[in-house]
Design brief:
single chain, about 200 residues, mainly alpha, 6 helices
Length: about 200
């Protein structure tokens, strides 16, 4: 009789421990909030830094129309301005990368963002899986690399034919990366369009 009563109690204890452990295990995903908040803070900091750079850049460019400015000084200011603009774009892209990462991690591990469901721009951040997050981050990384190579190309002093070949090779590789990115999106975009048409 005691054995028959003890067995269900033993099973109930195991089930209770299992539920407690699974609950703790599931709630452990909230640790991702640290990464989300840190990434969001990094994005805000980079946005701030890039914006401050742009403000100072505009202040320097105001002297560009000065008639007393020598031709060489004007050309140097022109080259520096282009370089700083590219650096600002690079900063904004990096901040965007961190922002997408923060939002993606939150949606994947914590909860769907209700506010985004009613926004027309939500398709940019419509992340349903790690593959979606990876694809969006990969696009931003490619853009950052393009801007970086463009910045290096502006600073590059073409002295020999080999230098020109290196620059042409970098441009060709960028074109190939963009082509492969769009080619990989083709079947997925076609399936998405077909699904919408069916619905």
């Amino acid at each position: 009789m005691a054995t028959g009563v003890g067995k269900p109690l033993h099973l109930n204890l195991e089930e209770l421990l299992e539920k407690i452990f699974e609950s703790l295990l599931w709630r452990s995903r909230l640790v991702v909030l640290f990464a989300v908040m840190a990434s969001l803070a990094a994005a805000i900091v980079i946005f701030y830094m890039a914006t401050v750079d742009v403000v100072y850049l505009v202040g320097h460019v105001l002297h560009y129309a000065d008639p007393e400015l020598a031709t060489e000084a004007r050309k140097a200011l022109h080259d520096q301005t282009i370089t700083h603009v590219v650096e600002a774009v690079d900063g904004y892209l990096l901040a965007t990368f961190m922002l997408i990462f923060a939002l993606g991690m939150y949606e994947l591990f914590i909860s769907a963002i209700d506010e985004a469901e009613h926004s027309e721009s939500a398709q940019i951040l419509d992340i349903k899986s790690l593959d979606d997050l990876k694809q969006r981050l990969a696009k931003v990384i490619i853009m950052i690399l393009i801007v970086t190579i463009f910045e290096l190309g502006l600073k590059l002093k073409v002295a020999t034919t080999l230098d020109l070949l290196y620059l042409a090779g970098a441009v060709a590789l960028i074109g190939l990366a963009l082509y492969l990115t769009h080619a990989s999106e083709g079947p997925k975009a076609a399936r998405t369009g077909q699904d919408r048409h069916d619905h």
